[in-house]
Amino acid sequence: MQAVIEGLRYNTETAELVASYSYGYTTDHEYVCEDLYRTKNGRWFLAGEGGPASRYAESVDKNGWIGGKGIVALDELDAREHLENWEQDSKAFKYFDIKEA
Fold first, then answer.
1. How far is residue 16's CA from residue 89's CA, in Å, rounded to a whole number?
2. Domain boundaries of the chain, sorted by first residue
3. Torsions phi, psi of 97, nearest 5?
4. 3-state per-residue secondary structure call for the chain
5. Torsions phi, psi of 91, nearest 5?
6. For 25, how many CA atoms within 13 A lie in the half-sphere containing its CB?
């Protein structure tokens, strides 16, 4: 999957897959399946799909929603937060300068 966002191309075929997350079943409205990627230039993005109540929802007709898929560009803080929320601490330590408490 690939997309151009603000003049930059994000491509799952050429980026490094860092972590994955899945929530719910494909029949759930809030279903989400996301992969966190890092490009060769150090940019972060999500490639994912989800149900009609997810960030990947697509509008149909005037008031309807269906599941969809797409790419979302992230800054470093958002990427780190995704790893922390997904309980991928070892990967967060690998890519980010995280200090001891």
1. 17
2. 2-95
3. -80, 95
4. CEEEECCEEEECCCCEEEEEEEECCCCCCCCEEEEEEECCCCCEEEEEEECCCCCCCEEECCCEEECEEEEEEECHHHHHHHHHHCCCHHHHHHHCCCCCC
5. -75, -35
6. 2
End-to-end CA distance of the chain: 39
pLDDT digits (tens, 9 = 90+) for 32-63: 999 999 999 999 999 999 999 999 999 998 88
CA distances from 2 to 60, 70, 75 (A): 23, 8, 18
Enter the pTM of the model: 0.88
Residue with tokens 């994912």, as numbered in its chain = 48
Q: Which amino acid is at 45?
A: F
Bridge partners of 48, per DSSP, are 34, 70
Q: Amino acid identity, residue 40?
A: K
